[in-house]
Amino acid sequence: MEPIITVEHLTKRYKKAAVAAVDDISFEVEPGELFAFLGPNGAGKTTTISILTTTLAKTSGHVRVAGHDLDADATGVRRNIGIIFQNPSVDQHLSAEENIRLHVGLYGTYSYRPIYRLMPADYRQRIERLASVVGLEGQLGTPLKSYSGGMKRKLEIVRSLMHRPRVLFLDEPTAGLDPVSRASLWEYLRQVREEEGTTVFLTTHYLDEAEDSDRVCVIDHGRISRLETPAELKRQLLERVILLDALDRDGLIAELRGLGAEVGLDESSGLLRVPFDGKTPQSLIARIVTPLTVLRVSDPSLEEAYVALLRESDSESEEVAA
Question: In this model, does residue 317 exceed pLDDT 70?
Answer without folding.
Answer: no
